[in-house]
């Protein structure tokens, strides 16, 4: 039997198998004090999770949407007790392991006690709290956000001895633990929750040979691309992949923290690439279906917001709850802050100077909300970073690597890049800078780095009257092979089209950002760490930089 063939394997058993696999010659050296890094997320040690594999909730001011999975199939429909009501679970998979709970009609700014109950009335785990957001028209005194990107990946996969593809899962959980120790009101996980690229791995001979002969077989039967990932022929392999990268990382650690999962290129089971033989942005039908199946099972879609039209792209897909959106999201925390969250890869087109990364309706919505100015603070959370480039296709910018000069340049053509993408970038960043009462802020994902600064020029646009502040939130799970300095022989840097006052240049380390918000202050604390640093340093590490965003 293959290591991951049994879909009912518990997370502890998977960890045991991973430990056995660590002796393989293709695996990078273990981190120092790896045993300490494998401890459960703090706050879970005394919480009885029963047979639950993971819980990830989201919230708005009057509604919860909660995704739950079990290690084994349920014989009866589980229920969720919320404030004296019982909500029947809705099965989201073919076999009864995955369930969602859509809880409506809640009171704003209210803490509820939740309890999962089996069909016979027995409790399935300990109870836990979850709180709705404050309503519009109120001004909360404070809010804290934990933000990061690139949390996915299986550290056992590496075709190069001595180099890691992804960070050891124990250290990844310890970074998450450290971020959660700040008691955030919200978690923003910005893209790349799953790394299991298909065409863009198989088009590289060394990777294809290793994956097909050595690594992918440890997860069971190969995926049959002629059938959906949840089809019976693919289901066990698909669930094993996602269980490890999502359930094994999060478990029940997010159960009391509304979480917002933005999707990006790897969530569609590809890297963003363009060659003479292959173009994978926007995603093809197979990758799109795989992403939607992953989201449906593991992490919540974005709940409705009165200022986000239901007909916006990604809205009211057939498999989602009423009013939810799979692409564009909103965090509205009273009148303290509104954040708009958006996937920049799903709808990319190649129409030259008319090209867009975001559809027109989405662009219009983003600009309208930016200029509305009906909250104290406003924040863009795109999956594709502003200000910086690493020379890859999926940038807003045309910068590309000149290998001989060993730097990014504008005078060489980037294959596949479209001038219309930058034109859309200009419309968005101009709207951000045009805010009269608020300081523009972007907190972004995708890049395997942490960075901070303020943009005073973008192309021909002078933004110096109201510079756009940008925080690159930090990569939770990146390993040696994932950093741009390895993939493209150069670290990310600001685009040649951007004028930026840098407080922290792109730093290739693992990490996260804590954003503390009050009506009069907005503080971004950027935390970074990377092997061979001792994992014990994670628990006591100080911010690499504390970046204050000025408030008008």
Mean of residue pLDDT? 90
Query: Order of strands across the biggest sheet?
Result: 11-10-9-24-25-26
Number of domains: 1
The CATH architecture classification is 4-Layer Sandwich
State the major sheet: 6 strands, mixed
Instruction: Please state roughly what percent of the residues sit in beta strands, choosing from under 5%, 5-15%, 15-25%, 25-35%, 35-45% or over 45%.
Output: 25-35%
Overall, the morphology is globular
CATH classification class = Alpha Beta
Share of helical residues: 10-25%
Q: What structural class is derived from the secondary structure elements? A: alpha+beta
- The helix count comes to 10
The end-to-end span amounts to 62 Å
Question: How is this structure best described in words?
Answer:
- With 552 residues, the chain is α+β, with helices and mostly antiparallel strands.
- It has one domain: 4-Layer Sandwich (Purple Acid Phosphatase, chain A, domain 2), CATH 3.60.21.
- 19% of the residues lie in helices and 25% in strands.
- The protein has helices at 11-21, 34-37, 169-180, 199-202, 205-215, 232-250, 285-298, 360-372, 419-433, 484-487, and strands at 52-59, 64-70, 79-82, 85-88, 90-91, 98-103, 111-117, 128-131, 143-149, 186-190, 259-262, 328-333, 337-342, 377-382, 388-389, 400-402, 407-409, 441-444, 450-458, 461-462, 468-473, 493-494, 498-507, 510-518, 521-529, 545-549.
- A six-stranded mixed β-sheet has the order 11-10-9-24-25-26, covered by helices on one side. Strands 18, 19, 20, 21 and 23 form a five-stranded mixed β-sheet that branches.
- Strand 5 (90-91) and strand 6 (98-103) form a beta hairpin.
- Helix 8 (360-372) packs parallel to helix 9 (419-433).
- It is globular and about 70 Å long.
């Amino acid at each position: 039997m293959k290591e991951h063939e049994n879909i009912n394997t518990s997370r502890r058993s998977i960890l045991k198998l991973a430990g056995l696999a660590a002796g393989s010659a293709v695996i990078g050296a273990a981190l120092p004090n790896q045993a300490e890094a494998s401890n459960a997320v703090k706050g879970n040690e005394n919480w009885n999770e029963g047979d639950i594999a993971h819980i990830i909730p989201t919230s708005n001011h009057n509604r919860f949407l909660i995704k739950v999975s079990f290690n084994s199939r349920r014989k009866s429909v589980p229920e969720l007790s919320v404030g004296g009501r019982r909500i029947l679970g809705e099965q989201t998979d073919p076999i009864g392991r995955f369930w969602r709970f859509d809880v409506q009609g809640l009171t704003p700014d209210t803490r509820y006690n939740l309890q999962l109950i089996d069909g016979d009335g027995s409790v399935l785990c300990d109870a836990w709290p979850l709180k709705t957001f404050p309503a519009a028209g109120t001004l909360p005194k404070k809010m804290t956000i934990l933000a990061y990107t690139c949390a996915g990946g299986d550290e056992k996969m590496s075709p190069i001895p001595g180099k890691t593809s992804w960070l050891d899962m124990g250290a990844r959980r310890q970074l998450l633990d450290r971020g959660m120790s700040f008691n955030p009101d919200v978690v923003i996980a910005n893209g790349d929750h799953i790394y299991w690229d298909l065409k863009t791995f198989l088009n590289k001979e060394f990777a294809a040979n290793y994956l097909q002969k050595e690594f992918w077989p440890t997860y069971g039967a190969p995926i049959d691309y002629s059938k959906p990932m949840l089809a019976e022929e693919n289901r066990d392999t698909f669930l094993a992949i996602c269980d490890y990268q999502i359930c094994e990382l999060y478990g029940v650690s997010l159960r009391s923290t509304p979480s917002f999962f933005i999707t990006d290129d790897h969530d569609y089971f590809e890297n963003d690439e363009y060659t003479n033989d292959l173009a994978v942005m926007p995603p093809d039908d197979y990758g799109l279906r795989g992403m939607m199946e992953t989201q449906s099972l593991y992490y919540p879609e974005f709940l409705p917001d009165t200022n986000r039209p239901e007909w916006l792209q990604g809205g009211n897909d057939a498999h989602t709850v009423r009013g939810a959106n799979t692409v564009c999201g909103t965090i509205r925390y009273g009148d303290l802050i509104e954040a708009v969250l958006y996937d920049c890869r799903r709808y990319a087109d190649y129409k030259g100077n008319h090209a867009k990364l975001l559809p027109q309706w989405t662009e219009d919505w983003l600009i309208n909300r930016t200029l509305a100015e009906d909250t104290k603070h406003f924040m863009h959370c795109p999956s594709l970073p502003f200000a910086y480039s690493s020379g890859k296709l999926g940038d807003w910018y045309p910068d590309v690597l000149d290998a001989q000069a060993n730097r990014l340049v504008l005078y060489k053509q980037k294959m596949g890049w479209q001038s219309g993408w930058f034109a859309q970038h200009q419309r968005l960043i101009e709207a951000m800078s045009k805010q009269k009462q608020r300081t523009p802020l972007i907190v972004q994902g995708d890049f395997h780095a942490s960075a901070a600064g303020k943009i005073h020029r973008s192309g021909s646009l002078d933004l110096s009257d109201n510079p756009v502040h940008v925080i690159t939130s930090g990569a939770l799970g990146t390993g040696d092979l994932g950093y741009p300095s390895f993939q493209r022989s150069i670290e990310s840097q600001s685009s040649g089209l951007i004028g930026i006052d840098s407080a922290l240049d792109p730093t290739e380390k693992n990490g996260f950002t804590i954003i503390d918000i009050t009506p009069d202050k907005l503080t971004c604390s950027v935390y970074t760490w990377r092997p061979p640093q001792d994992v014990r340093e994670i628990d006591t590490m100080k911010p690499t930089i504390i970046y204050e965003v000025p408030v008008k």
